[in-house]
Design brief:
single chain, 291 residues, mainly alpha, globular
């Protein structure tokens, strides 16, 4: 199995929504973003699947060393071997990869966040930085688009946190800021009991509004001329915002069951969004240059 095939297998087997947004890219960009996604999966799985904290830290440290090998042109792992070409082609910053690892290690250092500013740092490292790397691969002409990419990554992470409240609590992790639980008079143990109630719904509605605000910030920062290049992010935004709508329509019962979109629905959203952005791109190209 080649490094690219290994990364593709990682992306497909994960069942992630991100895979659907990669389908509409050129072959080269698809290979590059799939390698980046596979890297994120590798380091994220260490924290989720390794029950010995010392072993997990040792593995993350190995990846820090392996990233150095990648940038030295001496990668050993299939993922970093697949990343070597994108790193060169798109001049991807090494510190971004290390910051993603730092974010994953935060899950070993703490399982509670006192306030949103603390959580925002975590979201930036594990998702916002991934957005910045993705923007480099997709391409942009205005640096304001980087703000779009970072905000969008954070929005995705906030959506995941809302969707996975119960699963995370079962792992001993609470990503909802503790001061916000206190404000809504929610005991952290209530996240495991799954008991519905007006206060719980209000808390989760507040989390949804915050995520929606980050999507809004992202779109307000996206340079019009960069929309077509960044269409994979726009596809993901449509899928994730549809998920947010489903969570709200279901009455915020994320403590009772997992809310998810079917693969067919995700593919339909991806196709529809890609078609919309293609049409918008063609219309922009037809406009007079002075318009």
């Amino acid at each position: 199995m080649s490094p690219d095939e290994y990364c593709k297998t990682r992306a497909v087997s994960s069942g992630s929504s991100f895979y659907y947004s990669f389908l509409f890219l050129s072959e080269e960009k698809r290979r590059s973003i799939t390698a980046l996604y596979a890297f994120c999966r590798e380091v994220d799985d260490i924290v989720d699947e390794c029950h010995d904290e010392n072993v997990a830290r040792t593995k993350l440290e190995w990846w820090r060393t392996e990233i150095q090998h990648c940038f030295d042109g001496e990668a050993r792992h299939p993922v970093t071997r697949a990343l070597q070409q994108p790193v060169e082609t798109y001049n991807l910053p090494q510190e971004y990869f290390l910051e993603i690892i730092d974010g994953m290690e935060m899950d070993l250092d703490k399982n509670r966040y006192d306030s949103f500013p603390e959580l925002a740092l975590y979201c930036h490292r594990v998702a916002g930085v991934v957005g910045l790397l993705s923007a480099e691969i997709f391409g942009y002409s205005n640096r304001a688009t980087l703000k779009y990419a970072e905000s969008l990554g954070t929005a995705f992470q906030l959506t995941n946190i809302l969707r996975d409240v119960r699963e995370d609590a079962q792992r001993g992790r609470i990503y909802l800021p503790l001061d916000e639980l206190l404000h809504y008079r929610i005991n952290p143990h209530d996240l495991l009991s799954g008991l519905p109630g007006e206060r719980m719904s209000a808390l989760l509605e507040f989390q949804r509004k915050r995520a929606s605000d980050y999507y809004r910030r992202a779109m307000n920062s996206l340079y019009e001329q960069d929309r077509f290049a960044q269409r994979s992010g726009l596809i993901m935004a449509e899928i994730y915002q549809t998920l947010l709508d489903e969570i709200a329509a279901d009455g915020y019962r994320v403590l009772e069951h997992r809310i998810a979109l079917t693969p067919l629905r995700k593919l339909w959203i991806a196709w529809k969004t890609a078609r919309r952005e293609h049409r918008r791109h063609r219309q922009r190209l037809k406009r007079p240059s002075h318009a």
